[in-house]
């Protein structure tokens, strides 16, 4: 009986360890989310880049919203593997927020960009950022023109552009599948010029 008791104790200990680790990772992710939102709130007020924690090598640069599917996340700068663990991020190969060109945002298919599988052509995507030239928070609404599933080598959609555009990128298929041999692209164009976020907020309140 003694070997059996030892085996049972070892199984219970392993289970408790895995549960504790899962709880720790969940708490860590929740805390990171709170700190990232706080950093974005400061950036939205002052325009100065705010690291979410002292040793972070990234900072919030935008807020990404898709009203129809209830999506609302903070975008971080630099889509490195470390940064993508904490949220969607801007690819350095794309245009900067508020500048002419194709703004490229990436996110994991199992978390931050998993909701993109519910997108349809014609959906509205809202991007908010701080314009350092105008010293104000601005936003632009994009309309989804096309949704494509392509191979990793097919990068024509990510070529530099002179006109304004938005591309959302994630791996495919969605979910916990161990393999993701394809890429899911959401291609969108501006529904109009950028506008002051404060003006937009007041206009929305007036319509209520």
TrEMBL record:
GO molecular function list: hydrolase activity
Biased composition (Polar residues): 196-208
Superkingdom to which the source organism belongs: Bacteria
CDD domains per the UniProt record, alphabetical: Sortase_D_1
First and last residue of the signal peptide: 1-22
A Pfam family assignment: Sortase
Enzyme class: hydrolase
EC numbers: 3.4.22.-
InterPro entries named among the record's database cross-references: Sortase, Sortase_D_1, Sortase_dom-sf, Sortase_proteobact_type
Chain residue ranges for the region called Disordered: 189-208
Keyword set, alphabetical order: Hydrolase, Signal
NCBIfam families to which the protein is assigned, alphabetical: marine_sortase (TIGR03784), sortase_fam (TIGR01076)
Name used for this protein in its record: Class GN sortase
């Amino acid at each position: 009986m003694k070997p059996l008791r030892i085996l049972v104790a070892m199984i219970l200990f392993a289970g408790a360890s895995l549960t504790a680790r899962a709880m720790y990772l969940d708490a860590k992710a929740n805390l990171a989310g709170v700190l990232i939102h706080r950093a974005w709130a400061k950036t939205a007020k002052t325009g100065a880049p705010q690291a979410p924690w002292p040793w972070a090598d990234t900072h919030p640069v935008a807020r990404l919203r898709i009203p129809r599917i209830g999506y609302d996340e903070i975008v971080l700068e630099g889509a490195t593997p470390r940064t993508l663990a904490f949220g969607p991020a801007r690819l350095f190969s794309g245009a900067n927020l508020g500048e002419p060109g194709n703004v490229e945002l990436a996110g994991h298919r199992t978390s931050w960009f998993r909701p993109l599988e519910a997108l349809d052509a014609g959906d509205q995507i809202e991007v908010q950022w701080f314009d350092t030239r105008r010293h104000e928070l601005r936003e632009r609404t994009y309309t989804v023109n096309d949704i494509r599933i392509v191979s990793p080598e097919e990068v024509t959609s990510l070529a530099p552009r002179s006109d304004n555009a938005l591309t959302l990128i994630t791996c495919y298929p969605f979910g916990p599948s161990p393999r993701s041999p394809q890429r899911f692209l959401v291609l969108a164009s501006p529904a109009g010029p950028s506008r002051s976020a404060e003006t937009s907020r007041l206009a929305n309140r007036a319509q209520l």
